Amino acid sequence: MTTTKLDLTGLKCPLPALKTRKALKSVAPGDVLEVHCTDPLSVIDIPNLIRETGDKVEISERSESRIVFLIEKANDLIEKANGLSPGSK
Prior knowledge:
Elements: E1 3-8, H1 15-24, E2 32-37, H2 42-53, E3 56-62, E4 67-72, H3 77-81
Parallel strand pairs: 1-2
Antiparallel strand pairs: 2-4, 3-4
């Protein structure tokens, strides 16, 4: 399992969710994307995004100045079951 870090500190809504979605496309199933944000709205936006993608997310750190998400990329089987190819999102 590989962990890829994505530093989105300083970016405001909707950029953290958009950049997270883009980064997830290059993460292999089973690997983890570690996302660092400072925008308080990301605690709503990123979990909503992950519900759409079918991946797993947890907030590993949350303070007034920083939020860290750990996102585990799900198998492509979910995308195939929905009739989507991995690059069609």
